[in-house]
Amino acid sequence: MTTDTPIYNSGRGTWLYRQTSKFQYRASIIEVRLPTGYDPVHCYPVVYLLPCEAGEGHQFGDPIIELLMLSADLTNRAIFVRPTFDTLPWYAHHACDTHIRHDAYLMTEVIPLVESQFATSGAKGRLLLGFSKSGWGAFSLIARYPDYFKAAASWDAPLLMDEACFGAYGTAGHFGTSTHFAGYCPPVLFRGNPQPFRQLTRIVLAGQQLFGAECMPSGEGECHTACMHQLFTELGITHHFHNDLIFPHRWHAGWMEPELQQLLAIAENA
Questions:
Q1: How many structural domains are present in the chain?
Q2: pTM of this prediction?
């Protein structure tokens, strides 16, 4: 791994790191936004804004721009990090391609870099926020690594995708095989290990737009968000559930604000 000297973008109020990794084909950007009046003596939770596009794509909006629309009282409570990935991110790794290992890149390179450069609260403040495929990824990550991440929030994500849906939304290119993909699906993972999520609330589930109101073409059941809520309830997994956040299917301050409020409350009460 090699990391270039960071560059400050005054227009966005962020530090930009360019990083080359063995887990990706090309260099990627790690964008960090610090609280106003950042105090290196104070330890901050870190919210990882997980993209649902490769590279610097903004078809689905820009989370940093949306952050600027939120109140300073909220955004100054945490450090915000936007990592990028050179291929379409699903936050796992390919069955055989060693240059598509997004979970390893995030956990062994992105997060250690952030925690070595800034005052963070470590594992008790590692928070994941995503929507659509990155909401799926946030739940998949915390279900696989419950001791590494503190909490995860997902808005309007295709959470019920299973092996029958392999190939949809670029999953073939990221996972390689349907069998490999099946092992990363959130319902399978939470069913296999619900215990870490039963005592403390660590999950924020919301969204009724595309996947909140539709099932996959090859899937069954009702909306993904409500069905995931039902599964969590059956498994005894405590969680925040709001299926009334209806906004455009993109990064949007309207749904980000309430989800961030709950994520940060989880970290601050840890």
A1: 1
A2: 0.95
